[in-house]
Design brief:
Layout: E1 8-13, H1 18-31, E2 34-38, H2 48-54, E3 62-66, H3 69-75, E4 81-84, E5 90-91, E6 101-105, H4 114-119, E7 124-126, H5 140-153
Parallel strand pairs: 1-2, 1-6, 2-3, 4-6, 4-7, 5-7
């Protein structure tokens, strides 16, 4: 069976906090994007906190769970990927997002693996952060929404009212 053409894919690599994943699942469901979760997860996707954050949107979500980052990268090795990281060399607004591409986000406490970013420095992008250097980054669900909506904006929000 041929896979549906998705405008974008949101990929959470080893997410740790259930409400973040629930909020991102809700964002993906409401915008019609596919969500990928890469194990190990810091929770069960049956957790009440995950379901509560996503409210009743889970039935409208296309979800794919991967056993490891290696498995995910092998399966989608020929697809365009953008890596969200505080170490990215380019601002997220300066990127031209291709249809069908993947937006990757790392776990809350560590981000994406440094070796992945090192192998794909041209794909690494960042959201400008605050003025206080002691504050690391935005909440994961906020970051995912910011990047996803910029990518959709560049394509004139197809299918959204």
């Amino acid at each position: 069976m041929e896979e549906k053409e998705w405008l974008f894919h949101v990929v959470l690599v080893e997410p740790e906090i259930p409400p973040n994943t629930g909020n991102i699942a809700r964002t993906c469901a409401i915008t019609g994007m596919k969500l990928h979760l890469v194990k190990p997860l810091g929770f069960s996707i049956d957790d009440k906190a995950v379901k509560r954050a996503g409210l009743d949107y889970w039935d409208h979500l296309e979800l794919e769970v991967h056993e490891s980052l290696g498995e995910f990268l092998e399966k989608y090795k020929d697809r365009k990927m953008y890596l969200a990281t505080t170490h990215g060399g380019v601002r997220y607004t300066d990127v031209r997002y291709e249809r069908g591409s993947f937006l990757l986000f790392g776990k809350e406490t560590a981000g994406l693996p440094k070796e992945l970013i090192a192998r794909h420095p041209d794909a690494a992008m960042r959201i400008p952060m605050g003025k206080n250097p002691d504050l690391r980054s935005l909440n994961l669900s906020n970051s995912a929404a910011i990047l996803l909506y910029e990518a959709m904006r560049q394509h004139d929000f197809p299918g959204l009212r």
